[in-house]
Amino acid sequence: MPYSATKYMIHHMKSAEDDHVDVAPSSMPPPRRRSPTRTQLPEEVAAYVRDLIVSGTTRPGEFLRLEPIAEAMGVSQTPVREALLALKSEGLVNLLPRRGFVVAPITPQDISDLFWAQAQLAGELAARAAEKITDEQIAQLTTNVKQYATAVKSGDWEIIPELGLEFHRDVNRAAQSSRLMLVLDAVMANLPNRYYAAGNPKQTGAEHPELLRALKEHDPERARRLMTDHISAQGSRLIDILAERGLWGDVEE
C-alpha cells in the first residue's frame, strides 16, 4: 500500500515476547524528497524519524521496524538502518540485541534544553541581523509576514511551516555569521522540522511582526529579547502539547 501526505497507516503488532507496541511511524507525512543522493537518504530518514520521536508521535519504548519506515519513505532498508544508528548516537534511539531499535526515553527537560540552546543562538543572530540587515532583506521579511498572515487566515497548513522556517532563515542570513549559523543548524537537527504545524500559528503570526519591527528599527537588544522569548515559548508550547498527549503520564504517576 503506497504512502502519501494524505493517506498513511499505523501498524500495531503485539510481540509474543513483551508488551511493547511496534509502530510504523507513518502517522506523520514523510518529508518531500528532492532527488536525494545516496548519502542524503539516511539524513532524510533520520529527520523523518526524529520528527516522530520529538513530536511524540512515537512513544518511548515503542519499536521502530525497518520495513514500515522504508515503505513510508520509499527507500530500501539500508538507509533506514543507517538513519536509526545515527539517531542512536544522538540518544533518541536504543538498539536492543536481537530485538531491534526502540525509542529511547525523552523528558520535558530534554526538550527544554534543546529549545533553550536554540533560543540563545537565534537571539544572538537576531541581534546581529538588526545591525546589518538591508532594505532588501527587510522587504523580503515584510512579504513573508504578510504571506504568513494570509496562510493562517485561510488555514493553509501546508505552507504555514515553510513560511515560518523561511522567516527564521532570512533573519539568520541577515546576521552574516556563517559559523554561528552552523552551530544553530546542529542544534536544530535535534528538533522536529514540522513543529510549526503542531505549534500555535496565531502566536507566531503575532510574534514575527514584532520581530520585524525591531529589525526595521535596527534595535539589536530588542530583537535579541523578542527572538529568545519567541523560541522559548515554542518549546514551552511543545512540552504542553506532549503532556496533553500523555507522553509523560507514566512518569508523572
UniProtKB/TrEMBL annotation:
Pfam families: FCD, GntR. Residues 39-106 form the HTH gntR-type domain. PROSITE patterns: HTH_GNTR (PS50949). InterPro entries: GntR_C, TF_FadR/GntR_C, Tscrpt_reg_HTH_GntR, WH-like_DNA-bd_sf, WH_DNA-bd_sf. Coiled coil: none annotated. One of its GO terms (molecular function) is DNA-binding transcription factor activity. SUPFAM superfamilies: GntR ligand-binding domain-like, Winged helix' DNA-binding domain. Keywords: DNA-binding, Transcription, Transcription regulation. Residues 14-40 are annotated as: Disordered. This is DNA-binding GntR family transcriptional regulator. It comes from Kribbella caucasensis.
